[in-house]
Amino acid sequence: MRAITGELAGEGIYAEYFRAAFSSAVHVEVQDNYGVPDEYEPLARWRDTGEIVETDGGRQWAALVAETTARGVTVARVRVVTVPHSEYTGWLLAASAPNAAAGEQIRWLPRHLADTPPADDYWLFDESTVAFNTVDGDGDTVGLAVTTDPAIAELCVAAWNRLWSKGIDHTTYLESEYATR
């Protein structure tokens, strides 16, 4: 397993994996809160005013997604979330439109419908490279642990397929009973 640290905002440490992907870049998210410094101010602004603040990191991420999907690579994520939502999840619901507009497919899955979700978040590239998010003692995201071990990739593919098939499309989820709780 290879450990990678660096800038998490925007395309940051993910760029090389997205640019190398030829088929898919899919993400499983299972936490209700994330410690990403680039998101602290936008989250506080949304909490205080309801306003969604566009950041440089957000624009860079949307550009990376658009670049990747323009090559025919699927970019998708499923967010396994607790209902009622944490403040952070509420903000993500409100702030996901630019990602979707850039071509990222987003689904939401209430945790109680998820059977047994994995314990850790990960990106899965071309069903063969797994990049697990790593966190410090305070829960702040600090980097990635990357592996191409076929057995680990196979487990992650199976979890992705199971969760994605149960997930609710972003637009549909926004209008669902889960989003309003």
- How would you name the CATH homologous superfamily? Endonuclease Chain A
Strand content: 15-25%
Query: How many DSSP H or I helices?
Result: 7
Largest sheet composition: 8 strands, mixed
Integer-rounded radius of gyration? 15 Å
- The total of beta strands comes to 8
Principal-axes shape call: globular
Order of helices and strands: EHEHHEHHEEEEHEH
Low-confidence segments: none
> What is the average per-residue confidence, as pLDDT, rounded to a whole number?
89
Structurally, how many domains make up the residues? 1
The helix fraction, in percent, is: 25-40%
Topology:
Layout: E1 2-5, H1 15-20, E2 24-29, H2 37-49, H3 56-70, E3 74-81, H4 87-95, H5 97-101, E4 105-110, E5 122-125, E6 129-135, E7 141-147, H6 150-166, E8 168-169, H7 170-174
Parallel strand pairs: 2-3, 3-4
Antiparallel strand pairs: 1-7, 2-5, 4-8, 5-6, 6-7
